[in-house]
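Sequence design from tokenized structure. All designs in this work follow the same two-part layout: the structure record, then the generated sequence. An example of the structure record is given first.
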């Protein structure tokens, strides 16, 4: 009976150590983000509170920490382009060129798992071509050297921003032009 108890205890410990739940802790200026065996150390570079028109949705880089990877256009820029060009996302005209210059690739790490439902809904709306707008509040972070199960990681740096989101709101389900 004792060997089964220790076997169950070992299994529970293993599951706890490889849990997909993201854990975030802060000490002084260092932010530690852990998910499964991946541990990232980061530091904040800017506070953000910004609404984005989602113009692209991809898969987060392979680190299993990010909850979403979007291409977003700041909403105030989208409004200015709409006023000037109408539906600036259609075609290859001046409005589309100007919009591309303002688009940002963003990896989103939800500080609270309750925001994952908001991201899921936004992704569904995007896939239905509804042009959703989300508001992100939190901090833009930079990742320090990191590891996965004691092996150093080289992170994909093709995304221009990584946001540790303390708040994610679906501001508009369908941005109309």
């Amino acid at each position: 009976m004792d060997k089964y108890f220790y076997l169950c205890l070992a299994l529970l410990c293993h599951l706890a150590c490889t849990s997909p739940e993201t854990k975030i802790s802060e000490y002084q200026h260092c932010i530690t983000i852990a998910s499964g065996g991946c541990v990232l150390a980061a530091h904040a570079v800017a506070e953000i509170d910004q609404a984005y028109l989602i113009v692209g949705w991809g898969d987060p880089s392979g680190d299993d920490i990010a909850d979403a990877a979007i291409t977003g256009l700041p909403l105030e820029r989208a409004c200015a382009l709409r006023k000037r060009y109408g539906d600036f996302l259609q075609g290859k005209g001046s409005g589309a060129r100007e919009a591309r210059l303002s688009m940002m690739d963003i990896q989103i790490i939800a500080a609270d798992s309750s925001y994952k439902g908001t991201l899921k809904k936004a992704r569904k709306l995007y896939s239905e071509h509804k042009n959703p707008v989300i508001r992100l509040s939190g901090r833009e972070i930079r990742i320090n050297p990191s590891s996965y199960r004691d092996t150093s990681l080289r992170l994909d740096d093709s995304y221009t921003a990584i946001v540790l989101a303390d708040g994610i709101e679906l501001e508009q389900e369908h941005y109309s032009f």
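Residues 2-17 form the longest helix (16 residues). We note this feature because it recurs in several other targets discussed in the main text.
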